[in-house]
Amino acid sequence: MSKDKNKNDKKDYKVALLVVLLLVLLVLAIAIVFILGNRNNEEKKDDKTLAYTDLIKEISYGNIEKIEMTVGSTNVKVKMKNEEEEKKSIVPNTEAFIDLVQGKVAEGNEIELIQNPRGILERISSTLFSLLPTLIMVALFIMLFKMQGLGEKGKVYDDTERKTKVKFDDVAGLDEEKEELIEIVDFLKRPDKFVKMGAKIPKGVLLYGKPGTGKTLIAKAIAGEADVPFISMSGSEFIEMFAGLGASRVRKLFEKARKISPCIVFIDEIDAIGSRRSSNNGAESENNQTLNQLLVEMDGFSSEETIIVLAATNRPEMLDKALLRPGRFDRQITIPTPDLNGRLEILKIHSKEKRLSDDVNLESIAEDTAGFTGAELANILNEAAIIATKRKHEDIENDDIEEAVKKVTVGLEKHNRVISDHDKKLTAYHEAGHAVVSQYLPTQTPVKEVSIIPRGVTGGYTMYKSNEDKYYISKTEMKEKLIVLLGGRAGEKIALDDISTGASNDIEVATQIAKDMVTKYGMTDTLGPIDLKGKEDYEMQLFGETIGDKIGEEVKKLIDEAYVNAQQLLNIHRDKLDVIAMTLLEKEKINEKQFNEIFND
Ligand code: ADP
Ligand code: ZN
Fold first, then answer.
1. CATH assignment of the domain containing 280
2. Is the distance from the beta carbon of residue 216 to the nearest atom of ligand 1 less than 6 Å?
3. For residue range 178-212, what is the model confidence (pLDDT) as tens digits?
4. Dihedral angle over CA of 530, 534, 539, 544, nearest 10
5. Closest to 526 in 3D by CA, of 556, 501, 497
6. Nearest ligand atom owner, CA of 214
7. Which of 45, 159, 263, 384 has the highest CB neighbour count under 10 A?
8. In the annotation, is 431 catalytic?
9. Residues 211 and 307 reside in one and the same domain
């Protein structure tokens, strides 16, 4: 945020404060006038006061010499013919009273009727009083708008003056994706060229991908390459506070985009506004307004307005189909998690400004981090720098980075935690169970490290070498993965005839894999290759009512089978299980080389 904007925000804040202050003063003033007025009224209730009915009587008797009134006031002063002192009275309806008096005068009665202009105090008080509701409303509206204004300004990154400096070179990997997007850069730079050719220019590009895969980064890079401003907002920010605000924010965003076009508008988490319009609850209809506004805006650009809307989501299946129609987000690009080479490139980019020691092997770090996103890799290098500093290293060593990887994946080592011998034994057999089982399963990768030093929330861990990036996983591989996952519990059961909570995460992961096998990958004979994942109830009914039961049965069958297999393997190789567990109890941690030595002994 620039300094100017800060100043503006402060100014708005002051205005709002002033309005509130004025309002308070106003209310106070009115209260005082009111109290004073009331006191006057009370004073009138002595013997100098003439009741209205008596006043009317006196007038008709012809006893009144002079009546003095003030416009807008019901208080009147009355001078009787036979009395020195003036009396006061209150008339309920001044107009009717004046008519009455003037009628008497016309009849020939001598009554002097004086109508004074209003007194200052009365004039102010009555004016304020009649204006009060309006004033309060106006003040409230001003405050409301200021508040909305403040909220919005805080949220749109205002990069109109400071264009982004990010270039395609800052985005590692993603070569094919960049190639697809280069066209947009061209278009932003020279729209006329395309228009002349009669080419239809894309308005919206949807980027699909997990958080941290670089969607924002690449959107910024497009703006940077084209040298145009980048304005952005997050979908979740559109839906909050007051109803209708989301839509007005969308309108403002595009108003601004039109002013500074050519430009890039980036909407992060678009699923928050653009999710399917199914139910009719409040939040949903608020979404609809926002979504509709977005559609209106996108349909409304003319070809001279060079605005490209990029939007990001990791839940494409949630999106309202209306967003994907021609002329809207008709292009979709998937931003994948980086492959081996991509990870290496990302590690290189993010280690540029860091002091790496010569022993750092980024290739092997890239190998160990399959499935990591760009953001996670950047985070690992940052953690490594912190660890290196704590360890008082000259520069970042390979060990520091490896420790950072573990810290990010399993948490920090907790050497000080006190663990009972029984728990230690359970953990040792648990981890040994995983490790030994995996050695006998051909699709599984070799063990890299086994440890029973607590880390984060886990009591121990077994790390495997990552396999080269794969696009497909076979059913055999998934089944063997289940066996490895249940190998932990099997180890505890076989060696100690007891089981612990330590397997809870294994069970969670295994269940998820088994569910996916059944409902997503169609890997069972009974259910077959049918997509059953995350289906609505009514869709499920297409397949008959018992489908849920069948899914449950199949999942249970897969898990049971894997557990039996794991126990069988460990029973056969009980010697290996014991020796690994004992070594763990003794050393707490075994690396790849040590593991292989013990195992092959
Ligand atoms: P997303 O928008 O997909 O959630 P971001 O673009 O915000 O992800 O990425 C967060 C950070 O991760 C980036 O600022 C960058 O530091 C790093 N990063 C992610 N992907 C890449 C990449 N391909 N190349 C370089 N850095 C990356
Ligand atoms: Zn485990």
1. 3.40.50.300
2. yes
3. 998 998 898 888 888 887 888 777 789 999 999 99
4. 60
5. 556
6. 1
7. 384
8. yes
9. yes
Asked whether 378 lines ligand 1 (CB < 6 A), one says yes
Give the whole-angstrom CA distance, residue 216 versus residue 265.
11
CA 577 to ligand 2 center in whole angstroms: 14
CA of 485 to the centre of ligand 2 (A): 6
Q: Which of 97, 121, 145 is the last residue before a domain boundary?
A: 121
Do 374 and 450 lie in a common domain? no
429 and 554 in a common domain: yes
**Cα–ligand 2 centroid distance for 398 (angstroms):** 27
Structure tokens at 537: 């109830």
Please work out whether the CB of residue 172 comes within 6 Å of at least one atom of ligand 1.
Answer: yes
The answer to pTM > 0.85 is no
- Domain membership flag for residue 148: no
Examine the domain organization and report whether 109 and 58 are in the same domain. yes
Tell me the ligand closest to 175's alpha carbon: 1
| pLDDT given for residue 127 in this prediction | 74
- Write down the catalytic residue from 431, 480, 492, 554: 431
Same domain, 103 and 204: no
Q: Which of 301, 334, 367 is the last residue of a domain?
A: 334
